[in-house]
Amino acid sequence: MGVLAVNLHTMTTKPQSVATSEFLEKVESRTAKIGIIGLGYVGLPLALLYSEQKFVITGFDIDQKKVDTIAAGGTYIVRISGEEIQQAKKSGFNATADFGRIGEMDAVIICVPTPLNEYHEPDMTYIVNTVEAIAPHVREGQLIVLESTTYPGTTEDVVIPLLEKGNKRGLKTARKELDGGFYVAFSPEREDPGNDTVARRDIPKVIGGVGEVATRMACAMYGSIFNRTVPVSTPATAEMTKLLENIYRCVNIALVNELKLLCQRMDIDIWEVIDAAKTKPFGFHPFYPGPGLGGHCIPVDPFYLSWKAKEFDFRTRFIELAGEVNVAMPYHVVTSVADALNVRKKALNGSKVLMLGVAYKKDIDDLRESPALTIIELLQKAGAEVRYNDPYFAFVGKGRKYDLQMKNTPLDNLGEYDCVLIVTDHSDYDYKKIVKESKLVVDTRNATKGISAPNIVRC
Ligand SMILES: NC(=O)c1ccc[n+]([C@@H]2O[C@H](COP(=O)([O-])OP(=O)(O)OC[C@H]3O[C@@H](n4cnc5c(N)ncnc54)[C@H](O)[C@@H]3O)[C@@H](O)[C@H]2O)c1
After folding, report:
1. How far is CA 155 from CA 151, 263, 287, 297, in A?
2. The 143-146 sheet, strands edge to edge
3. Which of 96, 318, 408, 456, CA to CA, is 20 to 30 A from 44?
4. Which of 111, 219, 263, 297 is catalytic?
5. 459 labelled catalytic
């Protein structure tokens, strides 16, 4: 039924369904119940942000260990403390594996993984399983938002058909005012783990709803935790926005990685070049070379688009070229270690190598797609005896693409290694001491910047 309601966020008067008005009022009064599906690196911090604003948050996860840890007031992500979880629990934060409770929520936000499968194609099983699990319980007026990074068209072509097919009330997606049904939007996550230079609420939130009402509802909900919301015209626009951001990073990292290889041959320090170039006050944004791409996003997301582009008879050549350059970097690191040992009349085969840092970037506890894993495997294959040290990982066991079963090695006897290889430049390391105590240091991150010693090889 339609009513004439004052729109809380545009302050215009226009007809609005009772359900929409109620939703906006509940957001305003912090009585809206929000369900967050997938309590990982994205979902858990998001739950805490809403809790800080006094919303009652229910987290849904199929991983019973995570549900139990939250129930016990504990944490499983290093940068989130147990105290933060306990504080959120005081505001009603709870976790469950029972999807029957979806019907209690006013809004549901989906933050499940979107990896690539073994053929380097989008693995949509997490999104599909989640949407199939919630579809029967979705009710009139509810807002469903997908946050997982994915190819343009996912919300309209995958999420909506599954929600409509599985809904036990036969509800459809509301596309305009007074339509009835449920509302759907896409809003990409833009978190940069380990980067504390921008507060999470200062990162603008892009939102593309299916229709103007869904966008308005999602903007109101996210506007309560983010200082700025950026509405766009469609979910596909929002999906593409996220991919553009990550492809931009992937391509630019590949560019500096390639130029680094050239600079090495020309005996020019690429890091000094980048530092000088970034003094230009316009038209240049610095990107830095490294041992290869890591993390859930940059090595993965661009290929969601190149896969989708094929359907349109289109080849995304920049993405493929960047992928080629970045994938070659761990091989370059291993060759550099072998060359550095060779200069010291040693073979890689039989040498003892200590890798510093296995996380995919500094100061975080995330191993996903880390180039360190590939480098360890390549070094072992070449006959090196490899150990690692990483303050964030006591043990590296089995993942989707590796099975290392290695224990963290203390840093107390650096002199016993033929090579100490810096793969992740964690802030906790004392690089001066490391250089002083090691026979040879191969540095993939410029972590030894400012230290001058004959045993450092920058690669
Ligand atoms: N991690 C980041 O920095 C980051 C940044 C931006 C975007 N993203 C995107 O956000 C999404 C989530 O990433 P993440 O890093 O949080 O992943 P994650 O692996 O840390 O967490 C995902 C969670 O979803 C749960 N899950 C899986 N299937 C489920 C299901 N059917 N029902 C309920 N829960 C389920 C898992 O148990 C896990 O706890 C991905 O699409 C990723 O690309 C991640």
Report:
1. 9, 44, 32, 19
2. 94-96, 56-60, 33-37, 107-110, 143-146, 183-186, 205-209, 229-232
3. 408
4. 297
5. no
Cα 28 to middle of ligand 1, angstroms: 28
Q: Rounded to an integer, what distance in angstroms lies between the CA atom of residue 334 and that of residue 315?
A: 31
Q: Residue 227: is it exposed, middle or buried by C-beta count within 10 angstroms (0-12/13-18/19+)?
A: exposed
CB 393 within 8 A of CB 424: no
Helix, strand, coil content of the chain in percent (nearest 5): 40, 15, 45
Confidence of residue 14 (pLDDT cuts 50, 70, 90): low
For residues 361 and 427, the answer to whether their CB atoms sit within 8 Å is: no
Per-residue pLDDT reduced to its tens digit, 104-150: 999 999 999 999 998 889 999 999 999 999 999 999 999 999 999 99
User: For ligand 1, which residues put their CB under 6 angstroms from it?
Assistant: 37-43, 60-63, 66, 111-114, 126, 129-130, 148-149, 189, 191, 193, 296-297
Q: Report which protein residue has its CA nearest ligand 1's atom 13.
A: 113
Region 60-76 average pLDDT: 97
446 CA → ligand 1 middle, Å: 31
Distance CA 344, CA 80 (A): 44
Alpha helices in 176-295 (DSSP H): 212-223, 235-266, 270-277
**CA–CA gap between residue 246 and residue 190 (Å, rounded):** 10
